[in-house]
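Every protein is a chain of amino acids, and every chain bends into a shape of its own. Below is the pair of lines this work produces for a single protein:
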Amino acid sequence: MIRGTRFLFLSIASMAALLLGAPGRDDKPAFQAGKAADYANQTSEQVMVGAKAFDNADLVADAFGKKTDLLKYGVLPVLVVVENKRDKSIDLRGMEVSLVASDGRHVEAIGADEISYLAKNGHRRPKGPGEGIPLPLPSRKNPLAAPEIAGRAFAAGMLPPGDSVSGFFYFEAMAEVGDSLYISGMRDARSRKEIMYFEFPLKKDAGK
């Protein structure tokens, strides 16, 4: 009976390991950003920046899940990849990113923590103490409260030599033909000298 009991315990443990470890048939691999060169890109002072607008439902679903329809609520996610090919670290804490339309209109990125409020009444939460009427906290059923939105947002600080970092910036905008990305605020971590700004079209084949 002791041997039989031991065999039973081993069988249960083995089965549990198989169930937990084996991915389901419908499971998809976790989203992973590509290299900067895989997207529309620009290089300046040995720093390469690549970017891609996730401007259709399939791209958004791959990155954030099928239930997180950012485009439906007027939020355009743009993936940004920064590669440091210098021999010094880069400070990205002051990095600013804007979406620029072909006619010169600029839209600044919004914080990931503001997006969930757009599903409530189409407005972001008011900034500063006592500004506007307090909005209720987003509920679990909020379609824009998915953890992937904040978890995949661009949140880099220092970028070491030879390293790369990626993440999403979010814009209250619809994708338009001729959109460009404008990035400034990167600095050499030691000298504090600002690296030249980046501005390039979001379509990789633009101009070809």
